[in-house]
């Protein structure tokens, strides 16, 4: 998240500190709720079937260990008595659940190969062919929006969810599917995805199963591509900004948001030489002016703040069960009074501050090896602290050109000393404090968290600050105080208690007194 619910000193602007965590609450680098992996691999899942034509029908198959399936009424009928056009039938009712699963998997795998080929080539007719007419509008928009953003690679992967939601009957199936789409802004070896629930009707002609998709929707997290609307994409320097083409306010903001992103991201990326961090190839930024569920749980109220959301990985043995290191950013442009943030000098500085903050979360997610995401992995104050530090140091670098009557709300110098006297304690800010509904409290706690890394930058430089921040993403429950360099003994670290004491004394001297 980028900042507190109402950025102070400018009531019109809002940065709600509700946070965003796709699993486990509100924090900055958000990772989607992954489909649960089965306890053991489903041995019955066949290998992916490739296809280059439009056919999505597959002859039923069964494992070599199974018995011969019972004949259908059509097979019982003498050949000479068969009608010229064989009527549609369902699969034989006597087929075993195992055989049914195997034959459905084969049909579904071939269907996915056809869909992936259609999306990859831009063949709209091929892609929409297996969908029921009632889905054509929404799925057609999904296809067009995904193509507009750009398709570098595609992988539609079943999540092998037989223990957690797949169902099979003689005439239908449901599956959990990871829609993996690599955009031109994602790293070349990645396959970020989002989990969908898919249902299909099965008909059989001459012993061949044909699937018609009857349901197609996000399973856990909202997908902005699934809006049943047309999205407008503008891009520059590996940054894409996406907005609802029917929302005139957001379309008007698109170019300004792109320029704001380019400024902040270019500056922060230039500071990373020598840190060893992998810089993301690009950014995809969605614009919002109302609460949303994009990349967040479909349950509950809509998100009202800025978000950096990690996706799930469509590659591997169990697609959708691991976090991807690719992210999406949402820039909230709704003001405290419900209106759209004005596209003026102050509004554009707000956008630059936010995107600089959120792209820092993206950077940390790209370099993370954490197995899960929760408020202690990394600690929320650590995740927000490094993003605040980069955001405010960037604003400092602008000098007088940043004097736009919109003080940077997360800079510790912009919170009153009396607030620090009342709220600064020996403990670091909690998740609830950081995401307080009070803009004053939220800004103050954000400033405290960010000041730890600003102190590191002051004492040891930007490179060391970022390297220590990266260590926080290697394993859970770490604190930067464990890694403060000892200025009197090069190559050694200060005791954590000493490091924290020195930071706090510096903070009190500079911001509380």
Question: Which features does this protein show?
Answer:
513 residues, Neutral Protease, domain 2, twelve-stranded mixed beta sheet, alpha+beta, 12 strands, Nuclear Transport Factor 2, Chain: A, disordered N terminus
Indicate the structural class: alpha+beta
CATH superfamily of the largest domain: Neutral Protease Domain 2
- State the major sheet: 12 strands, mixed
List unreliable stretches of 5+ residues. 2-92
What's the helical proportion of residues? 25-40%
The gross shape turns out to be elongated
Number of strands: 12
**With helices defined by DSSP (H or I, 4 residues minimum), what is the helix count?**
12
Q: From N to C, what is the helix and strand string? A: EEHHHHEEEEEEEHEEEHHHHHHH
How would you portray this structure in words?
It is a single chain. Helix content is 33%, strand content 16%. It has 513 residues and is an alpha+beta fold. The protein has two domains: 29-35 and 225-512, Neutral Protease Domain 2 (Neutral Protease, domain 2, Orthogonal Bundle), CATH 1.10.390.10; 57-64 and 88-219, Nuclear Transport Factor 2, Chain: A, CATH 3.10.450.50. Strand 8 and strand 9 form a beta hairpin. Helix 5 (248-270) crosses helix 6 (345-366), helix 6 crosses helix 7 (380-397) and helix 7 (380-397) packs across helix 10. The two termini are 29 Å apart.
